[in-house]
Amino acid sequence: MSNYIVLVKQVPDVSQITGNAFDPETGNLIRSRLASVINQLDTHALAFAGFMKKISGDDNAKIIVLSMGPPQAQEVLRYCLARGADNAVLLTDKALGGADTFATANPLACAVKKIVKDFFNGSNDYFLIAGMQSVDGDTAQVPPQVAEELSLPCIAYATDARFAEGGFEFTRIISGGNQAVAPATTPAVITVAKYDYPLFASFSAARRAGNTPLAQWTGEDVKAVHVGVKGSKTRVIRVFPPPKTSRKCLNAPYAKSLARFIVDSLKSDSGGTTQAAASADSGYLLPGKRKSWLDRSFEGSDAEIRDYKILADKLQMLGIGKEAIVDEYTKKQILDVASEHFHKNALDDMLNGLQLTEPTYKGEVWVVAEQHNGIIHPSTFELIAKARSLADSLETNVGVALAGFNLGGLSQELIAAGADNIYAIDDKILAEFDPAPYRKAIADCINKYRPQIVLFAATPQGRSLAPMVSYRVGCGLTADCTGLEIRDSSRKGQIGVLFQTRPALGGNVFATICTKDSFSQMASARPGVFKRLPPDNSRTGKIIQHKVKLSPNDKSLHILKTELATGSVHFNADIIVSGGRGLQSRQNFDSLLKSLSIALSGKFSTPVEIGASRAAVEQGYIKRAHQVGQTGTSISPKLYIALGISGAIQHLIGVANAGAIIAVNSDANAPIFKSCDYYLVGNAENVIPELIDELGKL
Amino acid sequence: MSGIVDYNKVSVLIVGGGSAGLAAAIQLKLKKHDLDVCVIEKGGSLGSHNLSGAVLETQSLFTLLNAASPGWQNTDQAKEIFANKIDRNEILFFPGRKTSLNISPLIGLAKIFRLNFGQMIHKDDYSVSISKLTAFLGKIAVSLGVEILTGFAANDIILDDAGQTVGVKLVDQGLDKQGNRQPNFLAGEIIHTGFVILAEGCDGLVTEKFIEKAGLHRQRPQLFSLGVKELIKVNSDQYKRFTAGRAIHAMGYPLWTPVVGPAMFGGGTIFAADNDHLTIGMIVGLDFKYRDFNPQDALALFKQHSFVKQFIEGGTVVEAGAKMIPEGGLCSIPRDAGGYIGKANCIIAGDSAGFVNMLKVKGLHNAIDSGIQAAKAIHESLSYPRQTAARYTTLINCSNIAKEMESARNFRQTVARLGPLFGMPLSVLGGLLPKFKIEEDYKALRAAAYRLKPAASFDKNAFTALASTSHREDQPSHLTIINRNTCSQKCTPEFNSPCITFCPAGVYDTVAGQVKPANPSNCLHCKTCQRKCPFDNIRWTAPEGTGGPKYKRL
């Protein structure tokens, strides 16, 4: 019989953000002003565990919920106890605070071991279930890292389970399709992308939950190794409000005005906007390459750049050269003229920083390639382009780790895209993506060649591989970066480090993060964020074959069936019309989207493709291949029309590069209205026929 | 309370975690700390379904809090809630959209002559957010050991053959739109209980079922008003000019303008909230006769009135909501044959009973007081549960509630009968007037049009968004139209489907030629539809728990 451990997290309620949650001066979201709730996907995970228990027919199976957090996180455990969980454990301890995913996964994995001992009598027949990601961090890193620490198979993005012949099979989302898999061994970690039937609280269970003391463990109780700020591999440098959207956010009161907007937006050739522009080249130069030894214009913050300017002025004024600044007497001299600006310790740090010219990290800039059946995922090329500019700044090479089987001519393609060295791991075991042998191969390769930067694509595959690899090699990882820049932090003795910027709290804040206590700086970036370079077939590079000992025992999954999208979806169309759950039924979805796309393609003589939100795909309105967004396809049509799509952050990221965005939704509060150009509050059922009518008149 | 074996059993069950229910829970724990007391609340958290003016007379509340949690005044939460002590209470009369008269001195005069009208002015009250107050009361109740279970909606009450209440049934959860059981279906549990306090607020679902099952009776039908309210962030100058201790009640425009204008009962309010926020409210008697009228229209006009506008122009509405008020007063309180407000071990408190004093336009203090009396009655009847209702009624009769309700006895009915123009002044005679025969609000609707109807229709979508209301979409509609033919054959031809207009949240719409609750997930739980449908053709039931608005500062 299997038992279940469900990982849950208490998160700020980002769906209910009011104006007073923002700091009026800095514009930053103040987390403490948001209500705390259970991470919604974790409620799906709990229900999924209940569902697995039910279909296995095992009434004696236990469901234990585990959370790490401050004492208030008891609330989410009680929430679970009211909904079918048998027991709950809270990992809470001051020393555990301030942890990144690395220092979160470690104590959680240790707590899992203790749960197995204390609650399951040491029985290792269990499944560890978690929501695929949390709404605050949005990294999807902790569950795969827990799997890594415990050396367990990890099945990410599960949407369904079946029980047959004494074992479970899972359906999960992969890039552009679905896959049926079974774990090769138990225990196994399952992350849940969606389960439609979260459980309801029962009165008696809720009362029992309120009257039962919860197990509270400290880091020491579970013998955790990497904890808190100290055990973390990344640190947050700064948090800032999201850049103001360049979307117009105009309300179209009638279908007629909307029709006019559509015509106008297709006329004016307004290209993609926000994200691609934000990732423009920084032109970083290593200190040794700069004209003046005093030039510190690539510091991480404006304040530091300003401080160094002041310092440079003072040094020039005093006529002090580079060699002299180590002298205590000289330092005192400088302090005399600069004490109004700097404290002595700060001055010391800054002067020490000025001595530094060599980059802190050594090695190449790497991209971990993603390929399936000999086709390289487009995001790999985008990352190579970014890696190229980073490597040029750092005066090093671009390496690509390419794992798979029968890799043939793929290396040449990667070199043409901007890579210098290809580290190819060609092995039969790697024929299909299985996180266990892949992470073993990639980690082994990274350990050997020790690149200073490793970039992964934030695709379903990359988001499960990256956390496992980084955890295995003991390096920090920042997920879903929208900005990657080389900067100095001279005062802290850091030169040429990777500043990793990413959205958090559902896109309501941005954070810049740096790696620490790691030999390599690892980050993943969402597809579509960077632009690929035009292929240059005249480029040459080296191909290095890397051998890793792999055996069938390294496999963690049996892949039963893979359903990939056929070539029938053309997301490079000028116009994409998408539907969401708001369209209520498959019939509605079909008829509204079809009639509108026929009208549009007729009117503008251009191909129109149909897209869908993840929710609509989950409802079975259309095939997964049509899914637009982070877990689907990122698109950049001239015109994007979203019907009945509320606008979850994952969806908005996927359409950020669209020329113009038009949204129709009956919920006046739909987040998509804040990230579109024109919107109409109304029921698509009523609006679309009118819109088609009005388009015909124009 | 460890050692509970059957978690579906509780000594005292309080239905509704509002001010009355929580006051009762606190008082019960003070009387007997080892008594197990459960409060169930359909809102997702305490306060999320509570909306009121609210001007609060604090005497009974403060007495209760002093006993329950000495030093409570010094908590940050209490300081925030009681930040606005009213030192300037004015009654204004708006003859038109630009003019205003301060009639406070007249009311003051009435007070000197001890006319009932004088009650309108009351000193030393606070203007408070009832959502915040409720959350605060909940915290104190929990600290005393009360079990508060939010997100649990009750939809029925179970009586035995002898008329004793034995349990309360919760709503089924996990049905799809068509009413089929989803894989996560959870049948509504039955909570077995020794005592029940029904404190659901206005027009309580279980209360009304209980009234029917237990054979309770109202001397006069209950009369309702709808209150719509907005919390507006204004600039500091406006707030300073208004002052933090000011409360304004305004009569006249746009509900009632002398001689030729519309004639509706009600008025607008402007109260100070904390930190540069003002609340604007509009209360309208549901006995209005205009088929194209919606209290939000009146709110919009009120906000445009030059007196009001000066304080809110340029401000941002940060929260909004709507709720009904039971206004019938003393003769609309449901009683059994013996005159008891309840039956045997089940008693009715707060707005569910209808303890609103219409002369003061206040009910919150009475709701709290009735909760306290309910707790005392149960405590005194622990050995004789059957006498609880009788004991409760005696305690109510001896309390300030009864005194107030008696003095305001005929006020609302007088206005309903004679209209605001003659009714208000005549109501001074109070008890001397005959008891009018009163009809239900819904019967008042006529084919008449509201003459001041604003040109632009009120933006209900924005309003609903500011109430943060939501329900799980895929559940059966919790609003039912009893007979569809009545809509198409009678209501639409005669009144042009007024539910589409008067529902403050835009729940009703015509879909494919049929009027129906098209957007039940917008519902604010105000229940106006089931009291104002001119053919009494709509029923409201409780949706799954946690559904509904999420008021925080109303």
Comma- or semicolon-separated keywords:
heterodimer, A: 698 residues, alpha/beta, Rossmann fold, 4 domains, 10-stranded mixed beta sheet, 7-stranded parallel beta sheet, 31 strands, 32% helix, globular, B: 554 residues, alpha+beta, FAD/NAD(P)-binding domain, D-Amino Acid Oxidase, Chain A, domain 2, Alpha-Beta Plaits, 3 domains, 8-stranded mixed beta sheet, 7-stranded mixed beta sheet, 18 helices, 23 strands, 31% helix
Question: What report would you give on this structure?
Answer:
The complex is a heterodimer of chains A (698) and B (554). By secondary structure, chain A is of the alpha/beta class. Chain A folds into four domains: 3-232, 3-Layer(aba) Sandwich (Rossmann fold); 250-271 and 566-697, TPP-binding domain (Rossmann fold); 287-355, no CATH class; 365-552, Rossmann fold. Helix content of chain A is 32%, strand content 24%. Chain A has 19 helices and 31 strands. In chain A, the strands form six sheets. A ten-stranded mixed sheet of chain A has the order 11-5-4-1-6-10-7-8-9-26, with helices on both faces. In chain A, strands 20-24-19-14-17-18-25 form a seven-stranded parallel sheet, with helices on both faces. A six-stranded parallel sheet of chain A has the order 13-31-30-29-27-28. The longest helix of chain A has 19 residues, at 101-119. Chain A is globular and about 80 Å long. With 554 residues, chain B is α+β, with helices and mostly antiparallel strands. Chain B is 31% helix and 22% strand. The two termini of chain B are 34 Å apart. At the A-B interface, α5 of A face β11 and α15 of B.
